[in-house]
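Hello again, I could really use a second opinion on something today. My current little project is about how a certain protein chain folds up. You're getting the sequence in one-letter code plus the fold written as tokens. Here's the protein in full, and shout if anything looks odd to you:
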Amino acid sequence: MTCNPGWEEIQNELVPAQTAQDRPDLLARVFKSKFEELKDDIVVKGVLGRAIVYVQLHKAVLKHMIHGPCEVQNPRSPCMKNGRCKKGYLKIMVNNTWIVPYNPWLLLKYNCHINVEICCSIKNVKYLYKYVYKGPDRVSMEYIDARWVCALEACWKIFYFPVYRMYLAVFRLQIHLPDRQQVRFRPHEPIANVLERSKKTMLTEFFYMNMIDHDARNYLYREFPKYYCWDYKNKTWTRRRSHKKVVGRIYIVSSFDGEKFNLCVLLNHVKGPTGFDDLLTVNGITYPTFKQAAKQRGLPENDNNIRQCLLEVRDIQMSLALGRLFATILVFCLPIGVRELWNEIYPYMVEDYQSTFVTTETHRIILQHGKHITKYDLPISTGECDNDSTVPRLIQDELTIPNVDEELTLIEKLNNDQRVAYETIMTIIDRKESMIFFVDGPGGTRKTFLYRTILATLRKAGHIAIATATSCIAITLLLGGRTMHSRFKIHLTSDATSTCLISKQSNLAELIRRATIIIWDEAPMVNRRALEFLDRTFRDIMEVNLPFGGKVLILGGDFRQVLSVIPKDVKVLHLKQNMRSINDEEFAEYIQHIGDENEPYIMDDLIKLPPSMAMQWEGQHSIYNLIDQVFPGLQEHANDARYMVDRALLTPINDDVEQLNAKIISQFLGDEFTLHSFDEVEGDTQHLYQQEFLNFISPGGLPPHILRLKTGALIMLLCNIDPKVGLCNGTRLICCGCFNNVIDAEILTGQYVGQTIPIVGIYLPDHVFSHGQLYVVLLRGVSQSTTKLLVQKGRIPEEEGVHTRNIVYKDVLFPSS
């Protein structure tokens, strides 16, 4: 359907001397209303029926539905390509040679171009999807590569009108307790017939199929319609012959429905049950209720989980670890009955340490999360936690950060670029001037090495130097580091006028006043508003109307990885020498070409990968070949921490990560442990969000609902629990054991943690889709021989080798970088 600027609704609203092209907002709204009416005519009223001919129809066809002419009559027509019409006209028809297929009733009613065809051929389907998924028209200009959006299309998007809508086949699944299924009958129907017919339901037949079909036991109840089809007449499940995608949904069951709700929970977690009794049986014991069975499987959350967690740790860990876990639970879990929990666990926490040390350590963990131990119902006085010094603890902690001997010798190891940057920054500090620096350098140029040198020099001289980073894994490489949001209380979501949550009379404000320098690593990763918040806050605290209150601020990062957010009035310091891949200069140069978009393109955005790195895609077994390349002899090295820390598999999409993890976990020896998350929406007291829905989604930054582990498997921490001891977002650990409520894991240590990975495998089931993604993933490697890429769609017709996409917005890179 194409908008007709001559519609009366449009023309009547135009003022004198105004044309329809001057009112894109009007065009969008009128077209939207007519389009909605068209859908109602077709879907609800079913007007695509018998055709009736009118005199007006002939005029409408001539005006709106004529294609061309083209071919010999007009060889310069836009539809001509290689001497032929791309649309296939002339059509072999009688008298309608140049007519686009249409429906007379719709054409007469809407008086605009409406192409009506049955999508029965692949060409028509491609034509349809081209319009559904096409973006703004792309145009190559002399100086920039731009996208052109017409005013009408812009208004359509501004008004949030939908571009397309697709309806999936959703199959609703019945759920009922034993012999509590819904019964339907006709008046005067014999009761025996009613009972016989009601014995079979979707759920009972699901149980029956699991008894007779071994393959059926691999699926949950909600997954069953994807592989089996329900026969309504015979009330049986049969194996699905077509590959039609069907989404199974169990009828909504409220948490207030008791046993029925717990039955629903079990059906969403237990594969292949053969009956209600099978669901009630756990570890050979049959429980009388579904609630008890679900509880034994660890599915519903209950108040006893926290207590059982602490008791399990008591048996496997030392008292210090128990105390740290207790403090972590106070901060993140908000348990009920804190005093009773403390009284039960406290004797075990002081077995190996003095009570004051346990109290101090507990308070330290609580304090670093912005809370105070006095806020909890604990038998601890304020005097046991606070010291007598007049210097705030926050400032004491910064002044007492220990300088490792190795840190003090770093200045001797600076290369030329690093030394120039170091001396430039130190000169500004010695002169007590104000300046904002941005340290720009590709990954591997040792920006962190430069930061550590500056921090060690200043702290040795008695200065306060605040080290921060956007991600927590980066701050583990800086002594005394904290995330920027944690250190300066930056809002995660705020408006353009917000500031950081720092009072001018607070200890944190005093720390900012005393600080000589502030370092912010990975600055390009943050939203620009975070910089604006910090700027306004520092100006207010310092009472100086200069950028960032006149402080010396060092921002660091690499615009080849993410897009720019840095203001233009900063002093840029460039680091160019790649120190990570110093033993493979060819690899370092190749990565630099990728990041700078200097690697030649074969076609579109596709580049050719070096043969030494690329693996040929030969089917799904190629994934196992990649795993063997990265983790050779996995079963023999399952508990070898050094072996694990030197290897990793990387892929851009979370769904692909889960598939890779499942394949790798299956290769470990031993029993598999299955853990389930407790999902809820904060403030949802009415239980408006169903458990099934919350369990199904996996937002970025959160683990999947079902976590499957084996001893020796790698784990990545997804939140900042205790950065001081290395437990932060991105920390890699190795699983040493798994219990009902506790995962026993060891932090992987080594020079490569958080930086590079000696042996890395990269799996790309589809090409990268954002600026700098290929560059970032290649930076994890150290050489071509130990970096392997498996690209599923890497073949180009008539071209040898493996190819993949490299997306770089070159305009955001610094010219001299």
In short: The chain is about 35% helix and 15% strand.
